[in-house]
Amino acid sequence: MRINCKQASRLISDALDRPLSKTEYLRLRIHLFLCGNCTEFSRQLQLMQQAARKAGRGE
Questions:
Q1: Which pLDDT score is estimated for 58?
Q2: How many C-beta atoms surround the C-beta of residue 32 within 10 A?
Q3: What is the number of alpha carbons within 13 Å of residue 59 lying toward its C-beta?
Q4: In angstroms, rounded to a whole number, what is the distance separating the alpha carbons of residues 30 and 56?
Q5: pLDDT tens per residue across span 4-53
Q6: Which of 2, 26, 45, 48 falls 20 to 30 Å from 16 in CA-CA distance?
Q7: What is the DSSP string of the chain?
Q8: Is the pTM of this model over 0.70?
Q9: What's the pLDDT at 5?
Q10: Are 43 and 9 in contact (CB under 8 A)?
């Protein structure tokens, strides 16, 4: 049931483009609970996505 960091980073990226399945979401949440590096990667991607949205709106 556990996933590795490579699989988690793929799911983190995928989640920006599409809803994850319940299984994908659960596996990712468990991994993020245990892995600080992937949690930080997820946070950084979210910040970049927010910045891109603001730039697109001219802010």
A1: 75
A2: 19
A3: 7
A4: 33
A5: 999 999 999 999 999 999 999 999 999 999 999 999 999 999 999 999 98
A6: 2
A7: ----HHHHHHHHHHHHHSPPPHHHHHHHHHHHHH-HHHHHHHHHHHHHHHHHHHHHTT-
A8: yes
A9: 98
A10: no
pLDDT higher for 4 or 54? 4
Which residue, chain included where needed, has tokens 């319940």? 22
Residue 19, CA distances (Å) to 55, 56, 59 in order: 24, 22, 27
CA-CA distance, 19 to 36, in Å (whole number)?
23
Structure token digits, residue 41: 């990667």
Predicted pLDDT of residue 54 = 87
Question: What do you get for the CA distance between the two ends of the chain, in Å?
Answer: 42
